[in-house]
Design goal:
The complex is a heterodimer of chains A (289) and B (314). Chain A is α+β, with helices and mostly antiparallel strands. Chain A contains nine helices and ten strands. The relative contact order of chain B is 0.13. The chains are: A alpha+beta (289), B mainly alpha (314).
Chain lengths: 289, 314
Amino acid sequence: MTTRELEVPATAPPSGPVATILGPFLPVDRPEPRTPTGFYTDTTICIGCKACEVACKQWNQLPSDGMHWSGDSYDNTESLSATSWRHVKFIEQFASAGTQGPSRWLMMSDVCKHCTAAPCQHACPTGAIIYNEFSNVYIQPDICNGCAYCIAACPFGVITRSNLDGHAHKCTLCYDRQRDGLVPACAKACPTASIQFGPIDELRDRARRRVEELKSRGTSSAYLYGDAPTENYSNLHSFYLLVDRPSTYGLPESPFNPWLRMRGDYLRSLFGGLAGIVVLLIVWTLRMP
Amino acid sequence: MPNPVELPSPMNAAGYATRRVTKPPNWHELVAFDMLFNNMTTGLFLVAAVGDLMSRPAFAPLTRLAYPMALLFLTIDLACLVLDLGHRFRFHHMLRVFKPGSPMSLGTWSLTAYSIPLGLLATIEILERVGIGGVPTWLRTVLIVSGIPFAMGSAMYKGVLFSTTSQPGWKDARWLGGYLTNSAIAIGCAELLAIADVDGQGPVLSIRTSLLALLAINLGFLVALRAELRPVFRTLKGGPRLDQMLILGAVVGVLVPAMLILVSETVPAIAVAILDGIAIALVLAGNFLVRRSIVMLPHHENDDGVVGRWDGGS
């Protein structure tokens, strides 16, 4: 088989300007729903090796972010971005020099939270952001037009628009690997099983048992973040076991779904418009020559 | 929520707590212009349509220019929307789904639907101007009536689009939609006054009076909006400047034009058109300043030197 045959499969999708314009409008078969999957990240056993970051970049062929020294502990990635879908965070909680006291490192591998009711998916006007058959939040790169509304909507600051292709990007939860029955690259690479992948219900049970275990060993501050819905936000398909406040890890203390206020906002908008029209009607009725 | 562990003099015990969690979207001046032109087209159409339906003979000379101008502003608005995309040749992807729950989707469909009656009305007006008439009145009325809900929807969605995000300031701006939709009517009235002044016809006095009333009401919406944004302005490093810009926008875009309109009642007729022209220009300039102040909110750092701080909503 020649290289050319490898590059052009027999069932090559139609190409050309017409196909480019009409392609996104063609109906496609929706895959059958599968068992919902997700990540459970136990931060108490993260060692900050960044193997997850490297594995993610390697599998997803994400370009380098350049060599930049942030001066912020070992965190030179700094934030999730269009080219960094995993971000290991480092928190140094040490006593001052010359003093005694408890000290510790906190480390956490951050990623898209794959919210059950994702504001980004709700916002997306093109339908590029979908829940795939594994109930993961997935951006279809051939549909996204880079409007950036998902970026504005995300309360976790996950999604970023790439300067390379102008589209929004984030973790796919290794959709391609999952379809082939493989574990996402980050979870596969994690040497301590801090990042665990699997059916979301199983992960939640496992995580709750782990919290109980930690508490029985004296880590009373252990708790789960995002395993259950709150009044203002859905549960997350990528949830965390934490031992300090969420904000310490760069997570919102109490995430809020912006869509909860949409109806009231529309009513106030309508009121503003109607108030103007009523003024016109009154004035013009009274003062029309 | 568990209590944080007590640690003496930690180096960076707060970790990432001082960093803003959310990322600002790539929206800048172009979006402020988009907001303005959205209000310029929808406002002009709505005001002209109301006048057209109320008294066709009185407003006919004005709508002859108003609908084509509204179409021009819509074209500029759409150009802003397209240019702001990361992938400009994919604007039409917005039309592959209809998601009423997404203000941007609803807005795109509203603008698309609005463009049809507006385009037809503008064409009819242009044809009549060059002497090719004969369009039945009922057809005009149908086009006007069918355009009103879509023009209203197009004006309404923009504020809701911003207030249903997680961005500092925007997410707190409950009256942003109300303010923008209301100011669209005020802007539209100002534009119609400009047409009346230029054309020398139409119920100029009535339009001027209604503009005065609309500006007064719009000031109320702006005061409500500023009250919501004030705490955010205080926490941002560039917040006071943005606040000043918003106040300047209120003065330039509402108070001074209102005063000029009041003064114009007492000056000779020849000076009225000049005062009107200045007032209308100031309405547009002031409205741009307010919109720019709002659009730029998430791009400003917090006082502690980091790009904002998530307060968890309320």
